[in-house]
Design brief:
Distance between the termini: 34 Å
Low-confidence stretches: none
Strand content: 15-25%
Radius of gyration: 19 Å
Mean pLDDT: 93
Number of strands: 6
Largest sheet: 4 strands, antiparallel
Strand order of the largest sheet: 4-3-5-6
Length: 148
């Protein structure tokens, strides 16, 4: 395969379709795990370098709300976060040592912002040499959460 040769139409369409499929599967991520403990939502894990950790959310913080929507259970939390796109700004209201704290953060994802933007470009039909390999190399299920 010669990188200087343009992609054949069917290969170009494959790249567009694959990029679109992958974008549809990407979910926003905060890089934290919560659990309902004693009737409140507690942070039980944060991923170093992830969005939550980056803004200072720590284990044992109580999560009260996301963008002024009060949280009642873990399923509601996940449903609410799932409405956002990676890169969206949000405010997470927590309680730490009895004190309310509002923290502003940008949703991350399991891929980098640069990879996400490349998938958006490809899905929109702008396909360049090397994209056929690149679209297949972007691992949307990686065991990582990237801050944006």
């Amino acid at each position: 395969w010669d990188a200087a040769q343009p992609l054949r139409p069917e290969r170009r369409q494959f790249v567009i379709s694959e990029a679109t499929r992958r974008l549809e599967q990407i979910r926003p991520a905060l890089g934290m795990q919560i659990a309902e403990l004693s009737g409140v939502l507690k942070v039980i894990r944060t991923r170093p370098g992830g969005p939550a950790w980056t803004v200072g959310i720590r284990v044992n913080d109580t999560v009260r709300a996301v963008d002024d929507t009060a949280l009642h259970d873990v399923d509601q939390f996940h449903a609410l976060i799932g409405r956002y796109r990676p890169g969206a700004l949000t405010t997470v209201a927590i309680v730490r040592q009895g004190q309310p704290v509002d923290l502003r953060l940008r949703m991350g994802a399991r891929i980098t912002e640069e990879e996400y933007r490349a998938l958006e470009r490809m899905a929109a039909g702008t396909v360049v040499n090397g994209d056929e390999q690149r679209v297949q190399e972007i691992n949307i299920h990686a065991d990582a959460v990237h801050s944006w």
